[in-house]
Amino acid sequence: MPFVFDVQRAREETPGCANVLHFNNAGASLLPEPVLSATLDHLRLEAQIGGYEAADHAQKQSEHTYDAIATLLHCSRDEVALIENATRAWDMAFYGMRFQAGDRILTSIAEYASNYIAYLQVARKTGAVVEPIPNDKYGQVDVEALQSILDERVKLISVTHVPTNGGLVNPVQAIGKLARQHHIPFLVDACQSVGQMPIDVEQIGCDMLSATGRKYLRGPRGTGFLYVRRAFLEQLEPPMLDLHAATWTTQDSYEMRPDARRFENWEGNVAGRIGLGVAVDYALNWGLENIWRRLKALAYQLRTQLSPIPGVIVHDRGVNQCGIVTFTIEGIPPEEIKRQLAAEKINVSISDYNSTLLDMESRHLNTMVRASLHYYNTEEEIERFCKHIDRMAETAF
């Protein structure tokens, strides 16, 4: 039986589809109507009755967000913390670990700059060492190479699941298996993968995982979350605490919360959190397997139609490739490509050298166009996009 996805419904429930051809979903997706309505409704309630009072009124909706994320990740609600963005969620986990001189932090060559800067900062302070895991011939983390370099000094394996600069999907499940076997903490940056594909933290075997709401989950900006495995929780000391994360018990003592909310702080964007929960429910309603299947098919079509265009080079790597497609046109700077597309109401973004420095340097790349698809994009939009790219490429020769 052929796979059928209700694209018409997806577009009808996405108001922005009427305005733009949006291939910047790895930046921020277009909000679906249910998410937009839930977020705006709460903001209106705050304006009408007051922020604290609106939060009390919407407590059930806010709490539901934890349940929705737990369902999405296949974990328990007490293993979920709601954080204002994926970077801070990742920071709360990473900076909660303790390192000392000689400790090894292993990461991927395609690691995101924010993460790598954090590694370097901690290494500078503690004397720990940051070591990139070699890639295999497909450009993804080489699991066999990882196994060969593990020893008792490795105190963390930290990998970006889907790098920001291409369609690569790193083999986190195989990495997690090794991490469990050697009792090494495993941190996954799932910023670009959550919402694109099914994510099961038990199958991955990670101790910590961070993600955002604004990308493939189609939630509001300024939302994110952190998963911390219950059995690993006591091994982490949050880098900062407040009266939400801990209780002041005596004049000179406090007690941290017993759940992952010890990584949160008291003040938060309640409307955003409610919108995030609705976005997760919305994704679950479509089915992550269905979303993943649709995204892979669309991205395959885009790569297939871009590749034959003279002067166009598609730069995606990996055995499994996702909905992010990166490319260049010989003789035309990516910023100019983005500008010309924007004039046609087509949204893309740019992946720069310093966002994934090791990977870009190893491939002798400076910058690329990033076209990132979602399930509400259409085959016709891909055709239109490629026609524009074809015309640009012609002018370069």
TrEMBL record:
Residues 23-385 form the Aminotransferase class V domain. InterPro entries: Aminotrans_V_dom, Aminotrans_V_PyrdxlP_BS, PyrdxlP-dep_Trfase, PyrdxlP-dep_Trfase_major, PyrdxlP-dep_Trfase_small. GO terms for molecular function: transaminase activity. The keyword Transferase applies. This is Aminotransferase class V. Coiled coil: none annotated. Keywords: Aminotransferase, Pyridoxal phosphate, Transferase. Belongs to the class-V pyridoxal-phosphate-dependent aminotransferase family. Its cofactor is pyridoxal 5'-phosphate.
